[in-house]
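Continuing from the previous page of notes. For each protein in this section, the sequence appears first, followed by its structure tokens. Read the first protein now.
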Amino acid sequence: MTRVKLADLADVTFFCDPASGRKVEVVKRVRARSAIVGVAHDWLDRIFVLVAWADRCRTDTLIEKIFEFNKLWKPRVFGCEANGLQSLFGDAVLREARFNGVSLPLTPVMQPTRVDKTWRIRTGLQPVIGSGRLFLQPEHVDLRTEIKDSPMSPTVDLIDALETAIRLLPPRASRRERDTEQDAYVQYLRDSGAPAAIIASAARQPQ
């Protein structure tokens, strides 16, 4: 199992998909769950899932979970689906946050309605999973099952939220771009007459 320190992760990003009574038909009709997924990436652009939570719960419980994860992880962005009536849910959460003096970076996210959801999820996750850059924690059993059974899983709440959370992550420079920037910085230090120890340290540092 890949181990990484939380201090090495950047751009903690969450996404919430409030259940709106939608149903997914695969073998039988299944009522959608509300889902919250949190991710972050490291300098190698490996993506680590921090939270993968889903439940058929009351609205109050979902709001409590949003505040709980926001307090625990302090995400840079907490996306929330805003299609249709779900935008009203986001507005209500923001009003409650302001009323309680809570800093909540809730951001409305409009999902493309002209794009098939299964296709969107597959094309969004396949490059990350196929390149071995997605890492789950042992307790993320439901998410692992949805990934394994996709596209035939009777529920897609978690992988749908995962795809959107990953999409909200800011792009990272490629390894070649990082190496080029590092080489230029090291050359600048040499040209400026920096001590050898500082140059050596910069040459070893991942950018």
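Done with the first. The second protein uses the same format. Note its length before scrolling.
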Amino acid sequence: MKPINELLHELRVDRDIKQYVIAELLGMSQQQYSRYETGESELPIRALSIIADYYCVSADYLIGRKEWSDGVPGLDKKVTEGCTAGEVINDIFSLGEEGRAAVVEYINLQKLKHGREK
């Protein structure tokens, strides 16, 4: 499991959010928030709660007790043999913006191919 500072960085970057936005949400400077992402400082519990709510993830996910958030049902459901929905979502979020857009486009093409609307 990844350390909290890496998760904080990934959640923010994956959503194209600047550090100052999260810092303002937490009522602190961008420099202080940066220390949490680099691992120089430990994130206070109050901030952990705010960040978990902001990103719609569980605090257990942020502190590394779960591989993904319990906030979304069905993440442990198998998509294919050996691959869960949560793993697919994690893989999609690890892609850049173009890669994520390509995945969505492919899914929409498959829906059309199989007679399902967008």
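What the second structure shows: Residues 23 and 33 are 6 Å apart (CA to CA). Residues 4-62 form a domain with the 434 Repressor (Amino-terminal Domain) fold (CATH 1.10.260.40). We return to this in next week's lecture.
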